[in-house]
Design goal:
- The protein is built from 11 helices and 8 strands.
- The protein has about 290 residues and is an alpha/beta fold.
- Strand 7, helix 10 and strand 8 form a beta-alpha-beta unit.
Length: about 290
């Protein structure tokens, strides 16, 4: 069974990622915005349920400046009622959520300060999912980072940093291949070293391929083996190239024909597929309708 999802915002509803400028980030403003973001997240989850969408990525900005030192607000306590209601809704309807820290979360940086800040970012994301009362099948997706002129040593630094992470973070961590530095083969190597599942990004694989000559299905099958029962269903990311823009630019909307070709390869597998497209829920609905018409 394949389940489809989308990331962070629903284009038909208010976005749950309001923030402010750093100079205006008073404790009162932070908690006000965080409360509003959580209030906005509820209708999105309800909309998803009504439309049969059980997979969703929560914006990293749901709590403004979540890992920044300016945010010293005890938001987990102050917003406990909202967080509990949202988490209960997610659990009771069998939904699955994830989070995906931004590009500045780099565990293999040669700069200690960058690694420290990255760990704080992962601590924040873990705190959000914990505050929602969600188990370890609700994941935090990260990339392997940069190569810094020595890919082998950089991968070693990533592995070493991961092994030093708190157990609660490691239980949620998932590794994703990228379009330039680290292929799916590299992600699988890191996965074996730190016992973390792998998210296979099909679009990134197009621009940074590995296992040449092997079918996408065979790669997906290898990736699913990195997911243990406590991790939940294997998850992959899917998008298309935006025509006319630089290679690696996610498309505005899904190419139904290309997706159905891929879907026919893996339709008998139990997978969650996160669509990384600009029109969000609209592509999810379009694909669900196309699959229903097949």
């Amino acid at each position: 069974m394949i389940r489809l999802g989308y990331a962070c915002i629903n284009t038909r509803l208010p976005a749950p990622n309001r923030t402010c400028r750093l100079k205006n980030a008073s404790p009162e403003r932070i908690i006000e915005l965080a409360a509003e973001n959580l209030t906005r997240l509820g209708p999105i989850l309800e909309w998803n349920l009504r439309h049969g969408i059980q997979v969703f990525r929560i914006s990293s900005d749901v709590i403004p400046f979540g890992s920044h030192h300016v945010n010293r607000v005890a938001w987990g306590e102050l917003l406990a009622a909202q967080l509990t209601r949202l988490g209960s809704f997610i659990r009771s309807h069998g939904m699955r959520v994830s989070m995906h820290p931004g590009q500045f979360t780099v565990l293999n940086s040669p700069r200690a300060q960058v690694v420290d800040n990255s760990i704080k970012e992962l601590e924040y994301h873990t705190q959000v999912l914990d505050a929602l009362g969600l188990g370890s099948r609700h994941k935090i997706v990260i990339h392997l980072g940069g190569t810094y002129g020595d890919k082998r040593q950089s991968l070693k630094r990533f592995i070493a940093s991961c092994k030093n992470l708190d157990r609660k973070i490691r239980s949620r961590l998932v590794i994703e291949n990228d379009e330039r530095c680290y292929s799916i083969a590299d992600a699988l190597q890191a996965s074996q070293a730190i016992a973390a599942p792998v998210v296979f990004d099909v679009f990134h694989h197009r621009w940074n391929p590995a296992f040449r000559g092997r079918s996408l299905r065979s790669i997906v099958e290898v990736v699913t083996q990195t997911w243990r029962p406590r991790d939940g269903r294997a998850k992959i990311h899917y998008s298309n190239q935006w025509p006319g823009l630089p290679p690696g630019t996610h498309s505005k909307t899904i190419n139904v024909r290309e997706f159905l070709k891929f879907y026919n390869e893996i339709s008998d597998l139990d997978l969650d597929i996160m669509l990384e497209v600009k029109d969000k829920e609209r592509s999810a609905l379009k694909l669900m309708q196309s699959l229903a018409d097949c």
